[in-house]
Amino acid sequence: LSRIRRTEPSVRSFIHVADSEAVREAEELDRRIASEGKDALGPLAGVLVGVKDNLCTANMPSTGGSRILEGYRPAYDATAVRRLREAGAIVVGKTNLDEFGMGSTTEGSAFQVTTNPWDESRVPGGSSGGSASAVSARQCVVSLGSDTGGSVRQPASFCGVVGLKPTYGRVSRFGLMAYASSLDVVGCFGSSVSDTATILSVVAGHDKMDSTSSSQNVPDYASELVSLDSLESKPLNGLRIGIIQETLGEGVDSGVATSIKAATLHLEQLGSVVEEVSLPSFSLGLPAYYILASSEASSNLSRYDGIRYGRQVSADDLNELYGESRSNGLGHEVKMRILMGTYALSAGYYDAYYKRAQQVRTLVKKSFEDALKRFDILVSPAAPSAAYKIGEKINDPLAMYAGDIMTVNVNLAGLPALVVPCGFVEGGSAGLPVGLQMIGSPFSEVTCVIADI
Ligand code: GLN
User: Fold this and answer.
1) Is CATH 3.30.230.20 the classification given to domain 2-289+352-449?
2) Anything else of interest in the record (predicted)?
3) Residue 453 has pLDDT above 60, yes or no
4) Which of 102, 290, 400 to mutate to test ligand 1, by most ligand atoms within 8 A of the CB atom?
5) How far is the CA of 180 from the centre of ligand 1 (A)?
6) Domain ranges of the chain
7) Taking CA atoms, which of 24, 187, 199, 425 is between 20 and 30 Å from 207?
8) Predicted confidence (pLDDT) at residue 109 exceeds the cutoff of 90
9) Closest to 353 measured CA to CA, from 340, 368, 372
10) Would residue 223 show up in a list of annotated catalytic residues for this protein?
11) 403 CB under 6 A from ligand 1?
């Protein structure tokens, strides 16, 4: 907590720091150690976690980064949070995000701008920027985020930490504020693959409160890690790795491309077989994603009607109530997405936009399936550039959307992907981190986490 107090004025990772609750829970753990012994405690006893503020936490503010939920304190924990707590983890605070997860820099929060711990003039990425910066600045050990189109992986890359987007359905979405339900997943951040794998094993698994959660067995992911200490022992022997050709060409920062190539060379030295692979529908994913995500958001966000949750407004009739609560409670980007989504779903435009985007989604899925028959893992950068300056893209939404090119396809296909730091480019005083994305087949998180690089 003292580290949070010291670093928070410049990093601003948290919308809410749970000081008194965290101290109370830690004291309770101490009491249990005294009476029952250490072994009686859960596997994560005392581990401090940060939780993205679009995940519900009982009796703690949960705003989704939006004014419309100011003052909202849910009565229950999201399933992923409940499972962490049952394992003994302590929620140390709620982390900042772009409003309802819509954005790539965390500048879209209604409350504050989070900075990148590597260079405070730069963005931490987004939308889970607060969860990434909190781990990067060592304000907590691990954190939870959500990933609809890259919101765990891109901030992990910008902040130099590990970020894992599980397979769609691997982790329950119960208690996660819905953005685009067919794409949303709860993901994990840590400062090592091993930490990240450990919390995945705790939060994953079927949940009767989310019918899309999978009942597939949950492995002990961390126990699958191999040691990469020695190049001679070739620990990745036989692993087939495909570099996605379309992700290293035009529009990608040359320093990023160099780091990724160096990382793949390293993977080759460790025994894997590395080849290039082309995914022809790769570039179609971005426009399809923005149509589908906005369409689903326009429907999901209709629940914020000024009556059920959060901020109360007074109004004389229903129109005024909606007008007052939504006009003042929702931010510009969110309104823009609701408008885009409503438009794409409207009679007369549905076939041209929504239906077309669904067809592209099928194509994207198919091209990943084909490539993953030949390769165990596909790799790419997590983002076309390292962290950029605060304010640089805020007035140019298309440029910001274009930065999601590396990640959105993975959500369209529902696949798992892990981002690990793999190098640096020039910038800031110490260089800026670059992240390598490793994409696997559905439920192959074990293969993705195997190498703690
Ligand atoms: N940047 C993307 C968007 O704005 C992805 C966000 C996310 O994964 N939540 O939609």
Assistant:
1) no
2) This protein may be expected to contain an N-terminal transit peptide but none has been predicted.
3) no
4) 102
5) 10
6) 2-289+352-449
7) 24
8) yes
9) 340
10) no
11) no
